[in-house]
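Record type: monomer structure entry
Structure origin: computed from sequence
Chain ID: A
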Amino acid sequence: MNRVVGRTVFVIVIWLWSLYYFLECLKFNDNSEKITIEVAFFAFTFFSILEIINLIKQIYLNKNKEKIINKISIKERILDRRIVSILLIIIYFVCIDIVGFYSSSFILFTIFSIFLGTRKIFIVLSQGAFVTLCLYVIFNTFLKVNFPSGIFF
């Protein structure tokens, strides 16, 4: 699939998800919340339309150019950073209910740091602990938001 076509599909999928969220939020009783979400949705719709128009122009311009097909092996596709990142995020969402939000966040941050090239284990673990501590202090202490707890936290 061409990158431009992929981006077009991505914008459409995200817009459909936002439409679903927008329709769900119309059930709110508070009018100020409805107005805020309506403004955000219509602004997002406007920018999505502009992006789709831009992508359609790119598709039209690329039709006139000669197509160059890059042969990429299956191993290179599997180890592509985008695919691995998406798989890590899916595993993260699954593990939140099992292991807990803070533990999963620490593990994900650590794995992403190693995956993106940080080699010093002390730096990776200390940064993961710092980010997790900041998440805990901001959300649990100041904002009083309770996250899913699992086996560890």
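Annotation 1: The helical segments are 3-25, 31-63, 74-78, 81-99, 101-115, 121-142.
Annotation 2: The mean pLDDT is 79.
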